[in-house]
Amino acid sequence: MPNSPPPAPPTRRRGRPATSTGPGSDDARSHLLDVALKLFAEQGIAATPLSLIARRARVTPALLHYYFGSKDKLVDALVDERLQPLSAALGQRLAEAGPNLRGALEAFVGALLELLSANPWFPQLWLREVLSEGGQLRRRLIERVAPPVAHRVRDLVQQAQAQGLLNPDIEPRLLLVSLIGLTVFPLAAQPIWRAIFPSDDITTDSLRRHVLALLLRGLELTDAH
Q: What is the pTM of this model?
């Protein structure tokens, strides 16, 4: 009986490699996003060419182009897959807290600091690409990321003021700005204040307590001399 011919080798699809862990896998795509985020936070989007992202990620520029096509599409992917999920998580925590402003603020501050600690690229990226004039994330943030959370915080403040539960001098449209300032800026400025003060004991939890103390009780200044 003649020997059967050897089985033909499996055909490979063009484009994406067959393995799930190789340079064409979803894991590799996620890794490229992580590398891009780190570089964008370190030196800005405009100053970071795609070739540097590819070199830092140890892939070819062709693979980066395969996934994203252009830097603009890469930035859009970062917004969709990294920033919007963070915003959605914060919105979920606000929704779970219900109409009580105090509970909502406690939930929001705790969740935001947890997210910032888990994503250390965020504070510097915020300073470079959102607050700075010409930052490439500002328009995207205004149009696609920030409105749901900003509107929810504004509505909670307005409801509390209407019920006589909150200082009427608080501007509802600016409270989210204050929350961001009290949480994001201290983390962005860590290299400065940690160099000035012994601060190994300042943790995410102690920062959370500090922020909530300022928000909920203020400085509690007295007229005593």
A: 0.81
